[in-house]
Amino acid sequence: MKIINSTPRADGFYMPAEFSPHYGCIMIFPERSDSWQYGGYAARKAFVQIAETIAQSERLTVCASQKQYENARRLLSDNIRVVEMSSNDAWARDYAPTFVTNGSEIRGVNWGFNAWGGLEDGLYFPWDLDDKMARKLCDLYNKDMYDLGSFILEGGSIHVDGEGTCITTEACLLSRGRNPMLTKDNIENYLRDYLNVEKVIWLKNGIFNDETNEHVDNICAFVKPSEVVLAWTDDENDPQYAMSKSCYDILSRETDAKGRSITVHKLRCPKPVTITAEECGGLDTMDFQPTRTPGERLAASYVNFYIANGAVVMPFFGDPADEPARDLLAELFPEREIISVYARDILIGGGNIHCITQQIPIFGGAE
Amino acid sequence: MKIINSTPRADGFYMPAEFSPHYGCIMIFPERSDSWQYGGYAARKAFVQIAETIAQSERLTVCASQKQYENARRLLSDNIRVVEMSSNDAWARDYAPTFVTNGSEIRGVNWGFNAWGGLEDGLYFPWDLDDKMARKLCDLYNKDMYDLGSFILEGGSIHVDGEGTCITTEACLLSRGRNPMLTKDNIENYLRDYLNVEKVIWLKNGIFNDETNEHVDNICAFVKPSEVVLAWTDDENDPQYAMSKSCYDILSRETDAKGRSITVHKLRCPKPVTITAEECGGLDTMDFQPTRTPGERLAASYVNFYIANGAVVMPFFGDPADEPARDLLAELFPEREIISVYARDILIGGGNIHCITQQIPIFGGAE
Fold this sequence. Notes:
Two copies of one chain form a homodimer. Chain A is α/β, with parallel strands linked by helices. Chain A has one domain: L-arginine/glycine Amidinotransferase, Chain A (5-stranded Propeller). Chain A contains twelve helices and 19 strands. The radius of gyration of chain A is 19 Å and the shape is globular. The first copy, chain A, starts with a strand and ends in a 6-residue tail after the last strand. Chains A and B meet through helix 3, strand 4 and helix 6 of A and helix 3, strand 4 and helix 6 of B.
């Protein structure tokens, strides 16, 4: 594994869209008892379901700590690879490498990671093991790596169409906890150089009370070039309404890198999901403080799905909106099976299915 | 990675000789401060030299602990893969899988490991992380595995010619710390079934004061079918003399699995190597006890070499016997470069170059 000192743009490498064919996928086995209920027990059950679904159509590697390796190995099927790797938590989307390709080779991009805001408004301390994962994963897969460790970015804060367009949110990328010394233009230039995109569409906001500073991957995702789904509510009294409306307005008047206008499919959210006192009781404290408060609203959204080669793996919450959401995705992804996984135990950790996965694109049909 | 419940013999898999072509090699980065001087610092330098040599002609993966990962990554070249994996010490030969092939597929064999004798006369406690490595490595390489965890065996206690013959030592395999409930016949049957050999040649002894209970890989190794090198001394007053003489006599009257008599090349040992008080001072204590005593004789032997695809990597000790040993190996391996590495800092840990490597055979020319 070599560290490459140029940029993907300079070398003709770019990040493909998630709906392009994958070589495989990376996940991390959860165990943090202040993020996940009952010592991670509840989340592990959901992660295993998601892993098994993904592994039906692509090669999956699950990273587990020394302590959890055997448990992961026992719970996961034979066709899933389990490797020992240390981490602070289990958000593969945010700390696994962003993979880029030139059509015949794959390389990784290592962004800096500071637990969604560092000492400013980050979610835990320390985050050193997470931050090291991108490099370890490039090493594991024998991929050379662009090292942009000085620039803070999580994989969940960007989405690309693979044809020159990136969507992100100002709430996250311009937050004081990320890269406060850089201007919006500086940040956009990093995205252009390292994702190799021509156009960055800046949404203002994401999902209400999303503790990642409103990652784009919880509110808006490409389903094909020039078509997105947007998390939506029709309830004008919900604080989410103004946030989604603002995104809708921006997307409606924007064009993508190829000059096409963007079709926006409204993916209606479930009714507000709040954490119960009993659920809070299943979480250990962090630095002597509870990590969640009973009644706290969780950032529930159907947009947080993962597009596998053969399936779209989407969350459901036991809400009347589950079925229409599933129907819309089935319509938008006619060639993929839509598999819903009950995701409340992942949502309690602060994210959802997209947040705990990272795809590796395929090249030349082989590896 | 699947666990296979039959045996390699039943499935037509066998262990190829070390001099057959390799896919690659596995090593472990040393750090145990009671095994290796100066917190492992001295051994790491030697391990790096050996790793770089091997990586010139085959794919090398080095397993490093979470704490040593970055140091390993920095010290080793780009073409060497470093993966995070926990272990109790650094003897890849003894706890990495024994790989077997049917000519088109590779599988691993997981033997039980108890630190060379368990609570009877083992060398450290606990050994749980070492014992788990074979399974983790099969998982890492996506190889199915025969699990013989109930049978204690180290990779260094056997050598095969790839044509039906295994050589081992009674001192080790019949020791009370290995499989005391099994007869010699029982043990031989395990070797027949899991290495898929027809004949086991039992030497009585290995190298004097070899704390592995005299592993065969320190005294005798195949250089081709029906030809071995044997560690030797001409000094009849050296306790090694009777041990080597006994091996010589057995080998001289034995035939291999194909009925061929065995040519024995005497590979003369260096003068007795003893550890100094200063060197002992560089080792931390284990359970409040020193692991070595000044003046203690170390099990120095040139037989403990590794046969890589393009080189034989052999130890040297700064002894007049270094040069003749090198010359003999050059004669016996005319198509390979002979590379000598100063190995005193490895020997102090209790083994040598063969002990810290494990080859993975190649099949069909590809992987």
